[in-house]
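User: Hi! I'm working on a homework problem where we have to compare a predicted structure to a textbook description. Could you give me the structure for the chain below?
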Amino acid sequence: MEYVIVFVTTTDAAEAETIGRSLVEKRLAACCSIVPSVKSIFRWKGDLSEENESQLLIKTRSVRLQELIRHVNEMHSYDTPEIIALPVLAGSETYLQWIKDETS
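Assistant: Happy to help. Predicted structure tokens:
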């Protein structure tokens, strides 16, 4: 698993942009795509909750993942932010090489 996509939910698009920009500037991610509005339904501290949030889709390499997680946790406004990494099983060789180049 050399490449991963990391999902991070944020309070809004502004927080997603702040985190995403920082990750790219620090070369922890090659690209952060922002889905500005998602509706999340979840259980939190025993109560059913619904929130309008934003979603970050972060393209990176697995070797950068632990540092990326630490950085997101430092910047995020949530006590327990969603940070979920999924492996990239295949992709365009040129795109994957670009991710590698941008996160080196």
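For your comparison, note the following. The mean pLDDT is 97. The radius of gyration is 14 Å. Good luck with the assignment!
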